[in-house]
Amino acid sequence: MKIVIVGCGAAGGTAAQFARKTSRDAEIVLYDGEGYGQYAKCALPFVLAGMRWEDIVEFPPAWFERQRITYKNETVTSIDMKRNTVTGKEEEHYDVLIIATGAMPACPFEAEDVFFLRRLDDALALREAMERAQSVIVIGAGLVGLEAAEALMHEGMEVTVLEYMPHILPAMFDRDMAEYAMKQIDMEVVLNCKVEKVAHNTVYAGEKYRADMVMVAAGNVPHVPDGGVMSVDARCHAHDNVYAAGDCTKIKDFFGRDITVGLGTIAARQGRVAGINAAGGNDALLPPVLSKTTKLCGVEMASVGLLGHEIDGVSGRYAGSDLPDYMNGDDLVVKVIANKKGILVGGQAVGSGAAKIIDRLALAIYNRMNVRDVARMENAYAPAVAPTFDAVTIACSMVERKLK
């Protein structure tokens, strides 16, 4: 059996690994148009901040070769599913195909001479340009935009962030949580800013903003050699002998919505599923609840599930500390969201331990737990570690009272 994998990101590289773990005999061919092997795309902002790019390469080309995976530094330009072939430098036949071609940066306005941060080459180009620049405009205040902005500030750049929406991190936070988060970060952010075009390092958005360089972080669009997006099921199955994984796919989330995700965690898990199944195994992806996290200016931020405006529900918000008052802990704000029946459907957190709080809420959402039960669950307690009734317990109790 010959398995051909197109793409070597979190999905494609992981698919190759799990295909080999599942079948020691399969012939596996991995196409990578970039040439670096599998690296951590989510670590690209650290490269902007001075980290050696080599340090974020997790599995270089030689590693795949040691696993008897044929690594080809070639860009696949076409896929013929009727003839079971892909074309890079030359045509190659497959028995099973995994498409993991990722996404490309979106730019919803006219722009010239702008930078993106999607690939390692993008980060290296930005690093080179930074040597000749003192100021930068970042368009987009999502995860990539803000993480890049912090990295650029770390390197001494004067940074201005422009955001179309009325608050930062619009795919991650409700407005109240976003406004609190914005107070925790030392960045110049202009909200409600509709960019019309970028030319000669000048951004036209009602008024003009000028800098030495401009970076666009306005989201991504799925990239497939022949266009479109790959719709897949829980087994990452797209066609008869074709699987797909990662940012090039459309999937059903936990709430039944068709989504394109753009999260490395889900791309890697899809890659595992696709690799196992392509090699003759049987695995399936749990429907994503969309857990997200970041750390900006030293402050953890995280969310999971539905946002408040996405459901006619009830929310509760705890604002306080991660420790008992007498222990002088760190600030923590936690918001939980439930439907009218009290079933937990979303959560957001800013402050100490936010990511682990969201992991806990994700588990509760997966199990369709009622806030009443979550509010009554015990939590680990010691004065130096956590309070008797922690932030999740209190926030869920608030929702329970509103539902009575």
Protein model, in words:
It is a single chain. By secondary structure, this protein is of the alpha/beta class. The protein folds into three domains: 2-104 and 220-278, 3-Layer(bba) Sandwich (FAD/NAD(P)-binding domain); 107-216, FAD/NAD(P)-binding domain (3-Layer(bba) Sandwich); 292-403, FAD/NAD-linked reductase, C-terminal dimerisation domain (Enolase-like, domain 1), CATH 3.30.390. Helices cover 26% and strands 29% of the residues. It is built from ten helices and 29 strands. The chain has a six-stranded mixed beta sheet. α5 (143-154) links the parallel β12 and β13 (158-162). α1 (10-22) runs parallel beside α7 (264-278). The longest helix is centred in the C-terminal third of the chain and has 15 residues, at 264-278. The protein is globular and about 65 Å long. The model has no long low-confidence stretch (mean pLDDT 97).
Fold topology:
Blueprint: E1 2-6, H1 10-22, E2 27-31, E3 38-39, H2 44-48, E4 57-59, H3 61-66, E5 69-72, E6 78-80, E7 85-87, E8 91-93, E9 96-99, E10 103-105, E11 110-111, H4 120-130, E12 135-139, H5 143-154, E13 158-162, H6 175-184, E14 188-190, E15 197-199, E16 202-205, E17 207-210, E18 213-216, E19 220-222, E20 230-231, E21 237-239, E22 242-244, E23 249-252, E24 258-259, H7 264-278, E25 292-296, E26 299-305, E27 314-321, E28 331-338, E29 344-351, H8 354-366, H9 371-376, H10 391-403
Parallel strand pairs: 1-2, 1-9, 2-5, 9-22, 11-15, 12-13, 12-18, 13-14, 20-23
Antiparallel strand pairs: 3-4, 6-7, 7-8, 10-19, 15-16, 16-17, 21-22, 23-24, 25-26, 26-29, 27-28, 28-29
Helix pairs in contact: 1-7
